[in-house]
C-alpha cells in the first residue's frame, strides 16, 4: 500500500462521504457547548456542538465543509464519542492527538483500541501539512467540551 | 525560445521528491526556485563583502554599499524606473503597506504641508478590485477604517475579468486611490492597466499596481504603464525571500511620509521633531536586508539576460498547455477565461476546481506524483467567493517550467475524480 493509499483508506473515504453526525442537533440538555474552528490555510471550517448528560456525552453533531480528511475525521469522532463516558472520550481524543504526532506509526499500545476506526488516520501523520485537517473536528470537540462544562443553564 | 540548458541553472530542480519521483515544480506563483546566480550573489556578499551599508568608513562598508545600491539600479532597470524611485521593502505586502500606511500617516497630519496632497478622510473614496490578493485589499480596507474614507471595488465577471461598465461611477471625483493587480494570482488574467490608469488620471486619483504576478513573467515598464506606485517581491521573480520593492514616482516618494520610523531615514533629529531624507532613504529605517537585496539585483539581471520578451513568450506557451489541457478534462472547472481566443489576456497560471473533491485532496494526489502545486484560497478569498467556491488547485509556471511539466499536471489531474470515487 502506497503512502497515498494508506492515507486515503476505504474507511476514510466512506466516512468522508457519509459524514456521521452532520447537522447540528437542537439540544434540550443542561450542559451544551459549541465551538467554531477554521483552518486558515484553506478556509475550511466546522461548527461542532456537544451536549452532556452527567458523565456522558449525549450528543455530538457538527456542520461545516472541508477536505475528505477533515470530514472523515469528524465523522469518526462522532461515532467514537457520542454516547460514551466523558473520561473515555477524552482519553480517545488524547490518543488521536498522539497518533497524529506519530509520523505514520501506530501507537502500539492499548490506546489503539480506544481509537477504533480512527486508527485509519495513522497515514495522515506522514504528511505534516494534513495533520491540521485531521485535527479540525477534534480541536472543536476539545473546545466545545470546555464550553459545555461552563454551561449550567 | 529559452536556452535548452536553462534548467541546469536551478540546483533544486535536480532533486527527487515523494517516492523518488522527479520534481515537477508548478508552484512558482507562490514562490519561485532560485538560479545559481542568485544563490552565489548572496553567498559571495557574505563571504567577501559584508559590511554596514551607508555607515562605515572602511573598504567593506564601501563595497557593501556599492553592491546594495547597484542591486537597486538593476531592479530599477528591470521595471523601467530611475534608481531613486525604488524603495526596498521586506516583501510586496510591506511595500503596499508602506504606501497605505504613509497615506494614513499623512491623513493624521504627519509629514506637514508637503504631505497634504495625500490626506484622505470622510467623503473620500479608495477603489480596489474583486480580484485582489489580500495584500492589496486589506491595507486599503483598513486605511478606509482608519481615515473614514469609503472603500469601493470593481467587480469581476464569471471569467474573472474586471467589469468596466461602471468604471466612471466607481472611480469618480471623490476617488483618491485606485489600487489593482496587474495579473491575477488566481486566473492569470492581465488587467486593462491603460484604461484604469486613464480613468484615475481624469479624476486625480493615485494609482497603485500590484506587480507580484507580472514583473516575474512580462516586460513591465512603469513609465509606459504610467502608474504612481508598484509593489513587487523578489522571491516570485527567482530572487531571495525577505526582500521586495516599491516603485514610486520620485516627486510622490519625496512627499509621502514614512510608515516605519527610525534611524537611517532621517536628516536632523531633535527631541521634538524629525526631518526625513529624500526617497528612497526616508523609507528604509533600520538595517536593511542587504544580502537579500543583492540577491534580488542578481535575479533582475538574470531575467534581463534571458530577456523579458522571451520570458513572456515562454510563460504564454506553458499557460496554453496547462489551460488547454485542463479545459478538456471533465468533472472540473478551469478558473478564468477558457479558450484560445482569450490566450492574449492570460499568463503563467491555471487554477482549477475539481467537482466534489477538495483542493487539499487534489493536491495530495498530485504530490504523490511528484507535482508541487498550491491548494486553498491563495490569499484571494473574495474572488473564490465570487466564483462560488472556497478554494482551488493552482499550477503556475516560470522560466524553468517545461511543456512536459505542464502535461504531467494535466495527466495527474485527470486521475483525481476516479481516485476519490467521483463520477467525471
Written description of the protein model:
- The complex is a heterodimer of chains A (153) and B (424).
- With 153 residues, chain A is an alpha+beta fold.
- Chain A has a single domain, classed as Alpha-Beta Complex (Sufe protein. Chain: A).
- Helices cover 46% and strands 19% of the residues of chain A.
- Chain A is built from six helices and three strands, in the order ααβββαααα.
- In chain A, a hairpin with a 4-residue loop joins strand 1 and strand 2.
- The longest helix of chain A has 23 residues.
- Chain B folds into two domains: 137 residues, Alpha-Beta Complex (Aspartate Aminotransferase, domain 1), CATH 3.90.1150; 264 residues, Aspartate Aminotransferase, domain 2.
- Chain B contains 14 helices and 15 strands.
- In chain B, helix 2 crosses helix 9 and helix 9 packs across helix 10.
Q: What's the structural blueprint in terms of helices and strands?
A:
The complex is a heterodimer of chains A (153) and B (424).
Chain A: H1 3-7, H2 10-18, E1 31-39, E2 44-53, E3 56-65, H3 68-81, H4 86-100, H5 111-115, H6 128-150
Chain B: E1 24-25, H1 36-49, H2 59-79, E2 86-89, H3 92-107, E3 125-129, H4 138-147, E4 150-154, H5 167-170, E5 175-181, H6 193-203, E6 206-210, H7 222-225, E7 229-233, E8 244-248, H8 250-253, E9 266-269, E10 274-276, H9 290-306, H10 308-327, E11 332-334, E12 349-354, H11 359-368, E13 371-372, E14 374-376, H12 381-386, E15 392-396, H13 403-414, H14 416-419
Parallel strand pairs in B: 1-13, 3-4, 3-5, 5-6, 6-7
Antiparallel strand pairs in B: 2-8, 7-8, 9-10, 11-12, 12-15, 14-15
Terminal CA distance of chain B? 37 Å
Beta-strand content bin of chain A: 15-25%
What is the gyration radius of chain A calculated from CA atoms?
15 Å
Kindly report the average pLDDT value of chain B.
95
Under the CATH scheme, the architecture of chain A is Alpha-Beta Complex
CATH topology of the largest domain in chain B: Aspartate Aminotransferase, domain 2
Number of strands of chain B: 15
Give the overall form of chain B: globular
Q: Hey, roughly how much beta strand do the residues of chain B contain?
A: 15-25%
Helix content of chain B: 25-40%
Amino acid at each position: 500500500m502506497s503512502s497515498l493509499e494508506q492515507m486515503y483508506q476505504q474507511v476514510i473515504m466512506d466516512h468522508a462521504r457519509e459524514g456521521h453526525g452532520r447537522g447540528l442537533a437542537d439540544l434540550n440538555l443542561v450542559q451544551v457547548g459549541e465551538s467554531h474552528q477554521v483552518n486558515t490555510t484553506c478556509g475550511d471550517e466546522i461548527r461542532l456542538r456537544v451536549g452532556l448528560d452527567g458523565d456522558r456525552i449525549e450528543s455530538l453533531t457538527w456542520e461545516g465543509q472541508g477536505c475528505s480528511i477533515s470530514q472523515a475525521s469528524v465523522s469518526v469522532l462522532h461515532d467514537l464519542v457520542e454516547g460514551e463516558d466523558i473520561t473515555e472520550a477524552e482519553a480517545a481524543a488524547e490518543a488521536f492527538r498522539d497518533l497524529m504526532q506519530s509520523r505514520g506509526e501506530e501507537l502500539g499500545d492499548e490506546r489503539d483500541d480506544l481509537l477504533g476506526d480512527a486508527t485509519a488516520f495513522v497515514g495522515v501523520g506522514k504528511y505534516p501539512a494534513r495533520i491540521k485537517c485531521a485535527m479540525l473536528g477534534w480541536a472543536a470537540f476539545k473546545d466545545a467540551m470546555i464550553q459545555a462544562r461552563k454551561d449550567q443553564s | 525560445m529559452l536556452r535548452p540548458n536553462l534548467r541546469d541553472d536551478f540546483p533544486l530542480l535536480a532533486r527527487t521528491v515523494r517516492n523518488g519521483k522527479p520534481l515537477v515544480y508548478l508552484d512558482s506563483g507562490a514562490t519561485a526556485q532560485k538560479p545559481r546566480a542568485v544563490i552565489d550573489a548572496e553567498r559571495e556578499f557574505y563571504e567577501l563583502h559584508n559590511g554596514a551599508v551607508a555607515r562605515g568608513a572602511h573598504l567593506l562598508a564601501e563595497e557593501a554599499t556599492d553592491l546594495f545600491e547597484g542591486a537597486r539600479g538593476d531592479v530599477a532597470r528591470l521595471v523601467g524606473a530611475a534608481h531613486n524611485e525604488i524603495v526596498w521593502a521586506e516583501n510586496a505586502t510591506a511595500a503596499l503597506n508602506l504606501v497605505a500606511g504613509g497615506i494614513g500617516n499623512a491623513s493624521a497630519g504627519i509629514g506637514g504641508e508637503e504631505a497634504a496632497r495625500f490626506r484622505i478622510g470622510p467623503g473620500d473614496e479608495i477603489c480596489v478590485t474583486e480580484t485582489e490578493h489580500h495584500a492589496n485589499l486589506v491595507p486599503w480596507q483598513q486605511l478606509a477604517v482608519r481615515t473614514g474614507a469609503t472603500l469601493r471595488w470593481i467587480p469581476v465577471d464569471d471569467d474573472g475579468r474586471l467589469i468596466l461598465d461602471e468604471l466612471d461611477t466607481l472611480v469618480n471625483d471623490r476617488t483618491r486611490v485606485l489600487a489593482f493587480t496587474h495579473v491575477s494570482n488566481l486566473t492569470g488574467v492581465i488587467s486593462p492597466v491603460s484604461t484604469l490608469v486613464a480613468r484615475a488620471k481624469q479624476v486625480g486619483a493615485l494609482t497603485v499596481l500590484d506587480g507580484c504576478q507580472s514583473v516575474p513573467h512580462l516586460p513591465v515598464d512603469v513609465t509606459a504603464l504610467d502608474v504612481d506606485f508598484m509593489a513587487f517581491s523578489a522571491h516570485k521573480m527567482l530572487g531571495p525571500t525577505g526582500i521586495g520593492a516599491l516603485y514610486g514616482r520620485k516627486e510622490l516618494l519625496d512627499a509621502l511620509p514614512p510608515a516605519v520610523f527610525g534611524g537611517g531615514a532621517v536628516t536632523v533629529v531633535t527631541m521634538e521633531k524629525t526631518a526625513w531624507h529624500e526617497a528612497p532613504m526616508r523609507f528604509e529605517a533600520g538595517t536593511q536586508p542587504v544580502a537579500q537585496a543583492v540577491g534580488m539585483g542578481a535575479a533582475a539581471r538574470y531575467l534581463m539576460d534571458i530577456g523579458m520578451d522571451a520570458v513572456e513568450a515562454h510563460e504564454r506557451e506553458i499557460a496554453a498547455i496547462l489551460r488547454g489541457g485542463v479545459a478538456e478534462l471533465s468533472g472540473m472547472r478551469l478558473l478564468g477565461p477558457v479558450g484560445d481566443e482569450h490566450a492574449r489576456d492570460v499568463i503563467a497560471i491555471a487554477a482549477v476546481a475539481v467537482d466534489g473533491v477538495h483542493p487539499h485532496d487534489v493536491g495530495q494526489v498530485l504530490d504523490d506524483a511528484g507535482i508541487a502545486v498550491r491548494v486553498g484560497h491563495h490569499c484571494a478569498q473574495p474572488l473564490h467567493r465570487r466564483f462560488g467556491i472556497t478554494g482551488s488547485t493552482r499550477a503556475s509556471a516560470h522560466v524553468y517550467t517545461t511543456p512536459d511539466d505542464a502535461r504531467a499536471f494535466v495527466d495527474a489531474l485527470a486521475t483525481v475524480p476516479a481516485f476519490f470515487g467521483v463520477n467525471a
